[in-house]
Amino acid sequence: MKKVLTIAGSDPSGGAGIQADLKTMEAHGVYGMSVITALTAQNTMGVTGKFPVPADFVTEQLNSIYEDIIPDAVKIGMLPDAEVMRSVRDALVAHNQKNVVLDPVLSSTSGTNLSEEDAREVLKTALFPVCRLITPNIPEAEVLAGTAITSKEEMERAAKFLYETYGCGVLIKGGHSGFTGEKAEDCLCDDSSFAWFSDRRIDNPNTHGTGCTLSSAIACNLAEGLSLPEAVERAKAYLTKCIEKGLDLGKGRGPLEHRI
User: Fold this and answer.
1) Is 167 considered catalytic here?
2) C-alpha separations of 30 from 96, 99, 138 in Å
């Protein structure tokens, strides 16, 4: 059985963070493990609080994993501060970890800042270079690349800039765009070439945890030995089915149905 580790924050309502990651891993038939970087108080209506886990205890969690069950892939989500980012980077480098997928969580859908602004440079310069793929949505890609994205051509330019600057594959997710029409289109830049992944845009407001789910699914597929384009294509198809299930829980933006 392939093993996949999620390094991320906890969502007590179960829709995002490590809870969504582990549900995705279970659906993909891999063995899921988790290192918690922060506790949050959140539900389908938004995030009301955050309690970071100290960096030394994140390191202790990582050491407990790597001295026993070695991951075939790693998904990284919420990292609350620069110290935790460096702890994660050090562990990945020390163990020559392959197949690292990072979802650069800069803020929650509700607008709550989840990563300290002064840590973004550490995220980019220390962690991006050890990743196989980063998966920003359009607002995150605009922040990371320092440019507006209002067209597919600008998605490609931003993805290429990030790829050439940090040496990792870049998947810019188009779900937040209004310029792709009835399709949800994502742009992958890897080896200086582009691949586009398109699927129907589903009329379902319950999309809490989509970013966590997609990045975890990609990590699962990489652990199974798929190429990066294959891993992204299958993960996007899985995510579409999760949204299509139409689960409706909570008073706000509800979670996905991960069992398909």
Assistant:
1) no
2) 21, 14, 29
